[in-house]
Amino acid sequence: MIIFTALLFAVIGLALGAGGIWLAVLGGSWYYIFAGLAFLVTAILLVQRRSLALTLYAAFTVLTLIWALWEVGFDWWQLGPRGGVIILLGFWLLLPAIRKPLGFTSPTGHVYRASAWPLALALLVSVGVALFSMTQDPLDQAGELPTAVANANPNLGGDVPAGEWHQYGRTQYGQRYSPLDQITAANVSGLEEAWRYQTGDVKRPDDVGETTYQVTPLKIGSSLYVCTPHNLAIAIDATTGKEKWKFDANSGMNPDRQHQTCRGVTYYRDAAATAGAACAERVYLPTADARLIALDAENGQVCTGFADQGTLHLEQGMQHRPAGYYYSTSPPVISGNRIIIGGAVNDNYSTQEQSGVIRAFDVNSGQLLWNWDSGNPDVTTPLPEGQTYTTNSPNSWSVFSYDEALNLVYIPLGNQVPDQLGMNRSEAVEKYSSSIVALDMGTGQVRWVRQTVHHDLWDMDVPAQPVLLDIDGRPALVGPTKQGDLYVLDRATGEPIIPVKEVPAPSGAIPEDFSSPTQPLSDLSFNPPPLTDKNMWGITMFDQLACRIKFKRLKYEGRYTPPSLEGTLVYPGNFGVFNWGSVAVDPERQVMFGMPTYLAFTSQLVPRDQIPPKGQDEKGSEQGLNRNDGAPYGVYMGPFLGPLQIPCQAPPWGYVAGVDLKTGAIAYKHRNGTVRDMTPLPLPFKVGVPGIGGPIITKGGVAFLGAAVDNYLRAYDLTTGRELWKGRLPAGGQSTPMTYTADDGSQYVLIVAGGHGSIGTKPGDYIIAYRLPK
Predict the structure, then answer these.
(1) pTM above 0.90, yes or no
(2) In contact, 33 and 22? CB cutoff 8 Å
(3) Long-range pairs, 669-676, Cβ under 8 A, ≥24
(4) Active site residues
(5) What is the pLDDT of residues 480-517, one digit of tens each?
(6) The pLDDT value given to residue 592
(7) Which regions of the chain are under pLDDT 50?
(8) DSSP secondary structure string, 158-206?
């Protein structure tokens, strides 16, 4: 037993010593060299049967504890990897089979046994510190949002009945706020499942990895309207969950699609039509093969008077039309007689992709009324026959919001592909990439633009629907970004309400490119502190050491470190602090609830001659090799993971947070979600996990959010951010919930649970509604 233990300690010592030398050469901590030596010397003393082995190991344990507390304080999730293996092996050394043979016999024959007390005391102190740290959370920010009503009669954005949900964010303002108050912080714990419906659209073996259920249903009258990843449109009875009709767009399959998803449909009622007439009420369905289909909301029949027999072909006017590279994943918006739509363009596939043009069509006929192409922004009159839009101009794949009083539609705009290569971008592209743009709804002309990243080399496109509300009587817009900044702007002019300043940014782009010397930074920001090797993590000290080495080998000088040939750490990552789920606001209290997520990514440029030929079975993905056909470099991208395929950076990776929008102060920030569905065992540890999806707020003072990678829908106290209730979901809940009143008078909370391919949650096809007991 002793020889086996000595060999084990020797192997550990050699591994830690070798890794520690590598880390020290890279400029990292010297601790692992010391740890390796401690294990090696202990191994030698064990072979010699010397009691000093236990004393030495006790001293090593205490010194490790001191070092760990110096690095991370009383954070259990970071102390565990540093000391877990050491403590377990310490208890192993105390086993009688190991301890009793240690010592020596004097010339008089007296046997001096090794004392267990020094090591036992060191281990007890370490365990005590561990237990104490489990009661602490040094990264938690406790606080409360103001409860006073700042505006008793706020503009919610359109005439939507209190019990309905007419648009993706409930109204044209995208507030994700419901005036319903039947469910409150006091009674939400009594929520129970009312019904569930399965769409029948499940993930297929030939699907791309980014096959996702991201839809937020609409509720109009007694019906719910929903779309599915493979472009089924379905109407469901809002009270019973029974299917009313189902339409299949037959959009087919294509391995070159980067995403297979649908975030929602768009509802329209023709005020000029006779009530009950065919297509007097419509549902518009965007598809994965670049179509927009008009359906009769009553029965799901195609409205043949729209466009080409009910179908608008969105690739018209594109110079290049590679199949699978362009589609609309988000619902269009309708204002007056205009339906306004953008499109998602595959990231980093080719320099000859479709345009990111934003277009307005007549909602009844499908006639093109105006087009705004960020690559040719001044000409918005309908494109003449035979001409084409700018190839590969920045696109908008997320959801728009609009203000009919100001006659403005607000566009969250992406970057020009390739995301990581900025050479040869036009003046217009440099101006409009990764910005929020306000367009005149009548003409498509630009009224203002607010750029959130200059010369974007990191895929920091604005991903979220801008949220509109009035703050202290001023028309405001809240624009969440991937890099964590929240832009609070005057939505009439684009000028900041909460200040925005320019700060120095890292340099060092590849010779053919350049980086902006400064970048904008909002005073309201969830931008995290820069990472250091102290922030590296693992399940054990071994994979933590591997992550420290990996971190030191990457190029990283903080946010906006340029892409490189050796590999760059991108943090916040292009997964986003905020993504398409956006944030929710309470326009009465003028507060915000959101889900900031922190997950570092890496990017490594690859010269064209080193990119292998495309495999026949290769499927679209934003992770791995992005080929950038036609560009001098491709890029390897993906989350910053360790040897065990868990994040290299220490948790928490996900929070819920509350903001007072009147002052710009972050009131609270709490870890959100557990590792239950991230590990082989269903462990309920509240680490704070990544997520993608969005929240909603109700007048009852409750916020609802799924999104996290454990399969739950949760309710939170809006004032404090504390979890009040959770419902277990049969699949990943990476969608934004909604709430409504049904014909039985009950307030329902509904979420679609179908999983998300890019974060690996369980796929499914569920729509689940909850209510309080009758």
Answers:
(1) yes
(2) no
(3) 669/140, 669/141, 669/596, 669/721, 670/140, 670/141, 670/142, 670/721, 670/722, 671/137, 671/139, 671/140, 672/595, 672/705, 672/708, 672/714, 673/708, 673/709, 673/710, 673/712, 674/710, 675/710, 676/710, 676/711
(4) 459
(5) 999 999 999 999 999 999 999 999 999 999 999 999 99
(6) 98
(7) none
(8) S---TT-B-BTTBSTT---EE---SS-TTTGGG-EEEEEEE-S----TT
